[in-house]
Design a protein that fits this description.
The protein is 10% helix and 42% strand. It is mainly beta and 346 residues long. The chain folds into 2 domains: 49 residues, no CATH class; 288 residues, Neuraminidase. The chain has a 5-stranded mixed sheet with strand order 3-25-24-23-22, with no helix packed on it. Strands 13, 14, 15, 16 and 17 form a 5-stranded antiparallel sheet that branches. It is globular and about 65 Å long. The protein starts with 7 loop residues before the first helix and ends in a 9-residue tail after the last strand. This is F-box domain-containing protein. Pfam families: F-box, FBA_1. It comes from Acer yangbiense.
């Protein structure tokens, strides 16, 4: 019987429902299959249909955790090490929030890698020679309208440097930066004396930090637009200014949190001050930090418990199920969706 040739459109549709590991194996079938799998059409369709969410656990190495496989009974869970070859002697790997399953990580000073933990692909961002000054802020994000991933660094002197993955080049942006960075709040809080992460949170084609206006004229969320390459401001909720601890995401909504008062606020409608909603958490843990939020609304926290750092899922606001990662002490957790988005982006 002669082999049946399937239309390319049907192959793309079938592949878009498969796990990433299977798709990666099919790259070896033939050159035509490799072309189909690396085509942006399949990448985008697969991303829109991918239901699988995992955790990237970060200390001096990277570990991948699949919460669907470990169940919800709590306890010590194994971590699958990733990219050890990139982190020799590194005290702490810095990781930016994921965009479409793609991370930007800094395994050592001034080295930036784009990394997909699902496919294990990585690509180093080329270095650049800044005019002057140390890094004040940075962030990684995706702009859907121009289909481009960008990495942003703001240096002393308020110079803004932007790397475009599509163009694979850096440029200096001449935009105003009317903010003070002394009390900047980005993702997360310091653990075990580690440096505070001044990494922005990506959402809706912008990167967000909590900053003071110049001359301390108020505190705002500063949003850098990756398309227009300009800053705009969003208002914070009332009564959260003094002890604000961090900024993050709840699904597709910005949130800010206070680990002292054990509460956080969610901006239900982007850019609308009146949509901020305060949520008080249970007292099962003290000083918990919202770490990542899954699409199914299960919230993930980092907490200090029995002299160890642990992360927990909270399903209904009253019950937490604890997990400690085997062999890992102090760590951060980032949620990501499985995708075939490649750092060798075209």
């Amino acid at each position: 019987m002669a082999a049946v040739s399937l239309p390319t459109e049907l192959i793309v549709d079938i592949l878009s429902y498969l796990p990433v590991k299977c798709i990666c194996r099919f790259k070896c079938v033939s050159k035509s299959w490799l072309t189909i799998i690396t085509n942006s059409q399949l990448v985008k369709i697969h991303l829109s249909r991918s239901p699988r969410e995992k955790h990237l656990v970060v200390d001096k190495f990277l570990y991948s955790l699949d919460h669907l496989k470990i169940g919800f009974d709590g306890g010590v869970v194994p971590g699958q090490p990733l990219m050890k070859k990139h982190t020799p002697g590194c005290v702490e790997v810095a990781v930016y929030e994921s965009c479409n399953g793609l991370f930007c990580i800094t395994p050592k000073t001034d080295v930036y890698l784009l990394f997909n933990p699902s496919t294990r692909e990585s690509k180093q961002i080329p270095g650049f020679q800044p005019t002057y000054g140390n890094e004040l802020l940075s962030g990684f994000g995706y702009a859907q309208s121009i289909d481009d991933y960008k990495f942003v660094k703001i240096l002393e002197g308020n110079t803004v440097h932007v790397f475009s993955l599509r163009n694979f080049s850096w440029k200096v942006v001449g935009c105003k930066f009317p903010f003070d960075t002394d009390r900047c709040i980005g993702f997360g809080i310091p653990l075990n004396g580690s440096r505070c992460l001044k990494h922005g949170i990506p959402l809706k084609g912008k990167i967000h930090w909590v900053l003071d206006k110049h001359d301390y004229q108020g505190r705002v969320i500063a949003a850098f637009d990756l398309v227009k390459e300009k800053f705009k401001t969003l208002s914070l909720p009332q009564d959260c200014f003094s002890t604000l601890s961090g900024i993050g995401l709840v699904g597709d909504c910005l949130c800010v949190f206070d680990i002292v008062k054990n509460v956080f606020w969610v901006m239900m409608k982007y850019g609308k001050k009146e949509s901020w909603t305060q949520i008080s958490k249970s007292d099962l843990y003290k000083s918990i930090t919202p770490s990542c939020f899954l699409k199914n609304s299960n919230m993930v926290f980092i907490a200090r418990y029995n002299s160890k750092w642990t992360f927990c899922y909270e399903d209904d606001g009253e019950k937490c199920k604890d997990y400690a990662v085997d062999g890992v002490g102090s760590y951060r957790v980032h949620g990501y969706v499985e995708s075939i988005v490649s750092p060798n982006y075209k």
